[in-house]
Amino acid sequence: MSGQRDRIRISRALLSVSDKRGLVDLGRALAEAGVVLVSTGSTAAVLVGAGLPVTEVAEVTGFPESLDGRVKTLHPAIHAGLLADLNRPEHAEQLGQLGIEPFELVVSSLYPFERTAASGADDAAIIEQIDIGGPALVRAAAKNHANVAVVTSVAQFDGIVAALADGGTTLEQRRALAAAAFGRIADYDRAIAEWFLAEPDAPDVVEGEFRFAVAPLRYGENAHQSASLWRDPSGRGLAQAEQLHGREMSYNNYVDADAAVRAVLDFDEPAVAVVKHANPCGIAVAPPRAPDAIAAAHRRANDCDPVSAFGGVIAANRTVTLGMAEAVAQIFTEVVVAPDFEPAALTVLSAKKNIRLLRLPAGFTQPATEFRQVSGGVLVQEPDRFAALDPSSWRQVTGAPVDEETLADLVFAWKACRSVKSNAILLADRGAAVGIGMGQVNRVDSCHLAVTRAGSRAAGSVAASDAYFPFADGAQVLLDAGVRAIVQPGGSVRDAEVIAAVEAAGVPMLLTGERHFFH
């Protein structure tokens, strides 16, 4: 606004507070400075009881307080006095025509909703503490901070008393008070929203950038870290999964289960992923015509690295059958997450005291946006999705044309590799991972790790790399192990060197043109 006044003398103040601490001292300082005090209900009673002159709001509005005090200040005679911008001559003229006097100060503390909600009071008592008029007063005064100072905390009283001695509030002071006021309103409204959305017996909400905390966790990634689960009220993902059995989920359980779900939902075929420390140690789809497809997929996923599967988390993209449940029951497993469980499967797995069983919500959807906190801020991105899943768009740069079976394995490996932490190398054979190298700081080490884990199964497998080979050395590790085909994005300045090495080995290599880093 142009022509803003800096220092504004306080001539008229509106006081309406639920927190009466310091009220009398502030009221006395204002009265002694010649400020007209306008007040409501119990606030006016306290001031009058201290012998201070007070004008009741009902005298200003010509309308009595009504509905048990629900309607007091919601009146044009009040809000016009708060919202008039006296830097505009037409506003001052209209106030005169209406016979309304402006305010230069609003002092308001809101009904104690948060305290009442935390006290265990019943719903009716809590709802009664949802303030309507108070936030309206505060917002109006804060919006019009060019003309009005707004106080929302006892801690701000001393600044107002000092301003009285200095001839009024400054624009800088009023702007800072307005910022604090809008922050208070935002916190207040958020607390109300969280109460409405919270499940019965939900714990108190903690402060943070993300809201809707509904359950504390025993601890975080380590025992000395506190943690809680926050649910998006509109989400249909892992956070909304129904726990059917087992001890409470831990922070690490959720992280691993989310990684496992990410891995299997890329596949249309029945698929199972086994995850440990947020990395797949096995991914597989069911072979064609398997009589119990999801049980077969689980068996093949577990066979990739049965040592690492111990204590892992399993996700399936189909209902867990009795056959799969009987196999899982033989292996120590932390969590099984799936769209559903056959009743017989649930009976078998529920006999294991320590296993946690999660049923995904109907209409499960992956988030439309991903967030990651960094110091001082948050990174936001679209989730990684496949754009190059049609192998007809891939470019074969070495070797003889691949047959149908090899191409199917390359497509499987390319899908499965996306869920492995970068740098990622995945070896696969007939729709199952046989060796995975993940999370290494250079690609050649990931190649060595994948080959080592695969052992003799590396020979005749196909290999997928989530990003290009920066040098030929990584590809050479795979070639020396006997892989029969490679799929990778390409795009390195040394592509020609890598292509030459693979061509010399007579091995087909296909380039997708699409990277899938996962950090």
Helices and strands in order:
Layout lengths: L11 E6 L5 H10 L3 E4 L1 H9 L5 E2 H5 L14 H8 L5 H10 L6 E5 L3 H6 L4 H6 L4 H11 L5 E3 L5 H9 L5 H27 L15 E5 L9 E4 L11 E4 L5 H14 L6 E6 L2 E7 L7 H12 L1 H4 L2 E5 L5 H7 L4 E6 L4 H8 L5 E4 L10 E5 L2 E5 L13 E4 L5 H14 L7 E4 L4 E5 L5 H12 L7 E4 L6 H10 L3 E4 L6 H10 L4 E3 L8
Parallel strand pairs: 1-2, 1-4, 2-3, 4-5, 11-12, 12-13, 19-20, 20-21
Antiparallel strand pairs: 6-7, 8-13, 9-10, 9-11, 14-15, 16-21, 17-18, 17-19
**What's the end-to-end separation, in Å?**
47 Å
User: How much of the polypeptide forms β-strand, as a percent range?
Assistant: 15-25%
Structural class by helix and strand composition: alpha/beta
Helix fraction, binned, reads: 25-40%
Shape: elongated
Q: What's the level 1 CATH class of the largest domain?
A: Alpha Beta
Total helical segments:
19
Give structural notes.
By secondary structure, the chain is of the alpha/beta class. It folds into 3 domains: 186 residues, Rossmann fold; 123 residues, 3-Layer(aba) Sandwich (Cytidine Deaminase, domain 2), CATH 3.40.140.20; 121 residues, AICAR transformylase, duplication domain (Cytidine Deaminase, domain 2). 37% of the residues lie in helices and 18% in strands. The protein is built from 19 helices and 21 strands. It has a 6-stranded mixed beta sheet, with helices on both faces. Strands 16-21-20-19-17-18 form a 6-stranded mixed beta sheet. Helix 17 packs parallel to helix 18 and helix 18 packs parallel to helix 19. The protein is elongated and about 95 Å long. About 3% of the residues have low confidence.
